[in-house]
Hints:
Number of strands: 10
Number of helices: 6
Helix content: 25-40%
Radius of gyration: 19 Å
Strand content: 15-25%
Distance between the termini: 49 Å
Structural class: alpha/beta
Order of helices and strands: HHEEEHEHEEEEEEHH
Amino acid sequence: xxxxxxxxxxxxxxxxxxxxxxxxxxxxxxxxxxxxxxxxxxxxxxxxxxxxxxxxxxxxxxxxxxxxxxxxxxxxxxxxxxxxxxxxxxxxxxxxxxxxxxxxxxxxxxxxxxxxxxxxxxxxxxxxxxxxxxxxxxxxxxxxxxxxxxxxxxxxxxxxxxxxxxxxxxxxxxxxxxxxxxxxxxxxxxxxxxxxxxxxxxxxxxxxxxxxxxxxxxxxxxxxxxxxxxxxxxxxxxxxxxxx
Length: 244
């Protein structure tokens, strides 16, 4: 039992990009990073909504640069076609970010892709769409975040059309108008932070500012937590430490 626990701990540690240890974003939760992005004027806090951790079953955190993949409907004959499988060109240390057509009910990621991605040093996958073969991802202890799962694969429904391209990921049923949740733009190399609360994208040129604000927010929340646990009211604690 002890040996198994230790192996799981090692495996979880390996699930985080080796580059994440050099990125100061790794010390913050997805929530703390979203809060910082909101303060910086982001309309969505970098949050990619409706995407949840499906593998592994234990806690895991990803902090790695994005390797992006655009999926299109197979009926789209005008979109480019790839000469190589998109998993075969994954960048080591990256997290794969896949954007699938919102109407697609099929999976765009399965167990064989997890095996290939792991072999090439990817640290996880974020899917604006569905996956399948959950048991295989969990057995491999490979982080998979997706909007859902399915029993059918890519063919004949969708196909990959681009890698390392800018993605615009729209929320499900976001609606229209000024109150609609804004889509998230993911550019290759943007930093992705994902944990049990959700997935956040941080543009490369905003990392330093996000870290600065996230650290301040972390310190303020620690003071609020200490006061609230000591019996002070939430409103009074917020007013003292957050100024509101």
